[in-house]
Structure prediction request, 246 residues.
Amino acid sequence: MSLILMIVGAVLLAVLIAYVIVKYLPLKLRWLPSIILMALAVYLGVKIYNGIMLPILFAQEKVERYQPVIKSLKIIRDAQVKYYDVTGKYTDNKQGLIQFIDTAKLAITETKTVVKRVNKGSTWSPLMVDEEVRVTDTIGYEPVLKYFKEKDYKTMFKVPGVEGAEFEIEVGEVEKVPGLIVPTFRARTSKTGILKGLNKSLVKQELEAIETDQIKGEYVSVGSLEEVSTGGNWPPSYDKKGGVEK
Prediction:
């Protein structure tokens, strides 16, 4: 809106200068308004260029800054999922989660179908029939570290590009259905720190983003305390850019 007003104002000023030249200015001084108009044209051109390019450059820069943040959140998510597989819950103990990756083991299970003789009658009048049932057995264990060898999990809680900042980690519970309580977790960091130094007006708009192709709200986060989810709040495009893994 301000860019439009600036253009309208510049056009009105140019018309006014042209009127003054024709009406009042002596012929020998008419070179002076030409210089003023030229300077005005250059100034206006720069403003129009900045008005068009600034949002484009901001959009490119924010994606570059968000990508490593999302990559770290994915590592935290993977660590929480493995922790849940072993313990049946999530944790907000950051050092404990790193130690878990270093030392814990996951059970390797095998599920197969076997035939069992089942009594379909009663104790006094048994009726034995063959019935197929699925049986799961533990056949060994593997280190959790196996899944994190190519991931920088030791520093996963540090927010990339934001000096001294760490991700907030919270755990909670949600009643998925009446009587069924399910553990939840959330890891997040504010967009403000990530976008520090960029245009304040555009940063403000980014904090209020609600579009489906944007990272909604004031935080970049994974997981939820309000629902059973291990997903992130970023759109699918961030899983494809820059080779970031899904």
In short: Confidence is low (pLDDT under 50) at residues 242-246. Helices lie at 2-23, 31-87, 94-103, 191-194, 200-207.
